[in-house]
Amino acid sequence: MASPMRIRATEQDGVVDVKVLMRHAMETGLRKGSDGKAIPAWYIETVEAKVGDKVVFTALFGPAVSKDPFLNFKLKGSAKKGDTIAVTWKDNKGESRTDDTQVK
Question: Which domain of life is it from (predicted)?
Fold first, then answer.
């Protein structure tokens, strides 16, 4: 199981600022290990944020994104203080992780 994401969501003047730190190795498949063999590709492909059942943000990632990616986005009119924002990532090996936070 992947490590929990660190998510912070704060509202100011009707705009919710969401910051997400995802723990993931993000291997490209091009790097070689100490044995000289290629390390298999393993990276996040999709990231989705929901408020309730409504998808409010979607991103497509690939092997060029760095290890432990940080994502910052803003929502206007989609969330308010007290709402729960759930963030889910899925990787190329079929693994996924969902974590959530309340807007402060």
Answer: Bacteria
Residue with tokens 């199981």: 1
Cα–Cα distance, 79 to 102 (Å, whole number): 10
Average of per-residue pLDDT across 46-69: 97
Residue 32 lies in domain: 6-102
Comparing CA positions, the residue from 102, 71, 89, 100 lying closest to residue 2 is 89
CA distances (Å), origin 86, targets 4, 6, 40, 49, 89: 12, 11, 29, 6, 10
- Residue 1: pLDDT band (50, 70, 90) is low
Q: Quickly tell me which residue has 């693994």 as its tokens.
A: 95
Q: What is the CATH number of the domain that holds 25?
A: 2.60.40.10
